[in-house]
Amino acid sequence: MRHDESRALYDRALSVIPGGVNSSVRATRPYPFFVERGDGAHVVDADGNRYLDYVMGYGPLLYGHDMPDPVRAAVQSHASEGPMYGAPTEIEVDLAEFVARHVPSVEMIRFVNSGTEATVSAVRLARGYTGRDKIVVMQGGYHGAQESTLVEGSFDNAAPSSPGIPSSFAEHTIPVPFNDAAAAERVFEEHGDEIAAVLTEPILANTGIVHPVDGYHERLRELTESHGALLIFDEVITGFRVGGLQCAQGKFGVTPDVTTFGKIVGGGFPVGAIGGRAEILEQFTPAGDVFQSGTFSGHPVTMAAGYETLRYAAENDVYDHVNRLGERLRAGISDIVADQAPAYTVVGTDSMFKTVFTREAPDVDEGAPTCDAGCTQDESCARYDHCPKTGADVAAAETERWERIFWQEMKDAGIFLTPNQFESQFVSYAHTDADVEETLEAYKEAL
Predict the structure, then answer these.
(1) pTM higher than the cut 0.85
(2) Which of 148, 248, 371, 418 is spaced 20 to 30 Å from 196 by Cα?
(3) Percent of the chain, pLDDT > 90?
(4) Residue 117 forms beta bridges with which residues?
(5) Is 66 known to be catalytic?
(6) Is 263 a known active-site residue?
(7) Tell me, what's the pLDDT at 360?
(8) Residue 231 to residues 191, 225, 228, 247, 401: CA-CA distances in angstroms?
(9) Cα–Cα distance for residue pair 98/111, rounded to 1 Å
């Protein structure tokens, strides 16, 4: 493959955009390829190279790069009628009603413009509703570029994870390991009357895809209820991707007080949302006193794209298709890993997948039960003690091997994966069985 045009564009970008990219995860080595257009399950770069795309915009593109006709028609219709109005429109009510009908936790919803804005607003809402300041988060979890959650360390020694964040923010944030119920219990024993909320992804979806162990979310639900705190599920990634229209909370059978959304709920356009119990959501202004507002919130084009995206999924076999291909892909990669790289761990669920370059292979007797389509933290699995349980487990993987060798080789084979070990990868409605076979052949060569 030649990359002359991408290299020239990157050279130009370095002069006017910090690091040459507008989101740090796009900065690949030695430089990123620049996308010219999307085509179904593929992207085509500025040099005409064609790639099977499993990044899918980091999750929003449930249908790949070709919108179904009803979605495209709705987007074009609303865009032609005017960019935006600074006033309510019917389509935002339609989308709100749809989400409230299908997601267990949602009685009311407020739309915003990004996943980060959604989690910022949810944290403020929790603090305003409870009158408390502290937020419990998961080590290795990601909740956007906001000061309250860009915090690292242990529950008794937290610090900002980025320059530019005053240390005072970390005083109100308590990181605990994902899947460690004892740590959560200890935090509530010491700070129970100060904790406004536990904020967690149902699955650590930005750190290698780590499933909850059996009973973990149920224990968080018990702890928050008994101490008067809120349970917030960040479903920006998993929302309408895992568990279909009920989202991951429906799949796991645990109903939070508040849920944040992004990505798919906007049909591929900029979006975020905060949903939950009416008595909590009505604390937002103008119904209550917790300030929340935004010029582009409920943008009619985004609302139309989101509404028609979810309606199309409800009326067609979208989730059956993407989940079947996701399972087939994970199962195929699991077979390849078992044969060629037994230390590695395949993870994911529904239409999400990843291979974590874990460092040690467990001793597994032939015929012993294993999760054959990605780790689900099944205690009967012979690899159970080996699969990553926390964000730290994923961080301890061979992350450099992924970035410097594996990603590059897959790119050269025409497969576009997320460029580091951590972010999830996604199957879309545009992918086919033939695409899965092509991908598995590339894995065989690269591993």
Answers:
(1) yes
(2) 248
(3) 88
(4) none
(5) no
(6) yes
(7) 86
(8) 15, 8, 10, 16, 37
(9) 13
The active-site residue out of 58, 63, 216, 263 is 263
69-315 topology per CATH: Aspartate Aminotransferase; domain 2 (3.40.640)
Q: Is the pLDDT of residue 159 over 90?
A: no
Closest CA to 113 of 306, 258, 257, 256: 306
pLDDT digits (tens, 9 = 90+) for 66-106: 999 999 999 999 999 999 999 999 999 999 999 999 999 99
Tokens 């988060």, located at residue: 137
User: How far apart, in whole angstroms, are the C-alpha atoms of residue 421 and residue 398?
Assistant: 8
Catalytic residue from among 234, 350, 393, 435 = 234
Residue in 51, 58, 142, 312 annotated catalytic: 142
Question: Can you name the residues that pair with 158 across neighbouring β-strands?
Answer: 153
Higher pLDDT, 222 or 155: 222
Q: 31 an active-site residue?
A: no
CA torsion, ordered 430, 432, 317, 206, to nearest 10 deg: -70
Between β-strands 108-112 and 272-276, what pairing exists: parallel, antiparallel or unpaired?
antiparallel
CATH superfamily of 4-66+318-446: Aspartate Aminotransferase, domain 1 (3.90.1150.10)
